[in-house]
What we know:
Elements: H1 2-8, H2 15-20, H3 31-40, H4 63-78, H5 82-94, H6 99-118
Amino acid sequence: MEAEAELLNIELFSSDEESAHKTPSRDYQSFSNFQKQKESWKPKLENGEIWKTIRFPLKNPSKPEGQTVLYAIEELYFHRRYEEGVRIADQALAGSVGEELRKTLRGYRERCAAKQRQA
């Protein structure tokens, strides 16, 4: 019975833990700093040119690098630039990539090639 009473008497948060979990104020930035940041901001335009940021040949790309390659092919597909999508997929497949990424690249390449044959 005493163990149950002690269990219910546990303090969930101490003042030290509470101070460690505080989030910064939403207005931590001054208005003038916000205006400077706002003036320098430009929207990100995605116009089928992400593939230009990829360095080939790929050598065991990290997950974000692999995702960038896939996104570049998806973007080319969206812009109906199927031939370029096939070319980027082939360049990626020529490098040393993991089996999962290789399987996805082959699928993307086949989709682009199929659309290219239809056109």
